[in-house]
């Protein structure tokens, strides 16, 4: 069931029997002996199958990352990925983009739940890509290793993705 949104999962009365799965897409209701949810940290399918809300089984790691492409080649077409570790749990990586330029990754690695960075990241993420780019810019500016130049390129790119790091720990099945 790729590209479908699961709307309900009903389990068989027989232990080990098939599950009846309904979707909101073009597929009709069907029975499956195995349902695998591959729809991310806030999986609606997992919430339907196990009960609860989409964040119930998600345990934050208080870290986040942003990935984007830039037109400039900062590593002279090297096939190596180059990382720079900056103070404060900041990691910056760049690699060659096969389409030209570089692919950049910024990772903010923290361990403490009171770390303001993750709360600010979540708020920026709720506001959209422009707010998230602004947050990343403010978080990383002045970190060294040409970061300010990379950040200027980030603000202009149309290819940008960010995510929070977390673990999914469902109850034992």
Automatic annotation (TrEMBL):
Region feature Disordered, mapped onto this chain: 1-24
Gene3D superfamilies: 3.30.9.30, FAD/NAD(P)-binding domain
Alphabetical list of InterPro entries matching this protein: FAD/NAD-bd_sf (IPR036188), FAD_aromatic-hydroxylase (IPR051704)
Top-rank taxon, per record: Eukaryota
Bias kind Polar residues: ranges: 1-10
Protein name: FAD-binding domain-containing protein
């Amino acid at each position: 069931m790729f590209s479908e949104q699961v709307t309900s999962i009903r389990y068989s009365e027989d232990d080990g029997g098939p599950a009846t799965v309904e979707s909101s897409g073009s597929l009709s209701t069907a029975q499956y002996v195995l349902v695998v949810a591959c729809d991310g940290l806030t999986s609606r399918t997992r919430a339907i199958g196990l009960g609860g809300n989409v964040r119930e089984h998600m345990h934050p790691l208080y870290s986040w990352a942003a990935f984007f492409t830039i037109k400039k080649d900062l590593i002279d077409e090297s096939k190596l990925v180059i990382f720079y570790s900056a103070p404060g749990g900041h990691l910056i990586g760049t690699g060659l983009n096969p389409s030209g330029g570089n692919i950049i990754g910024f990772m903010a690695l923290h361990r403490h739940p009171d770390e303001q960075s993750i709360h600010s990241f979540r708020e920026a993420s709720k506001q959209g890509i422009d707010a998230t780019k602004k947050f990343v810019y403010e978080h990383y500016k002045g970190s060294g290793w040409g970061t300010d130049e990379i950040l200027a390129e980030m603000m202009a790119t149309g290819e940008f993705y960010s995510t929070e790091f977390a673990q999914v720990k469902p109850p034992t099945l």
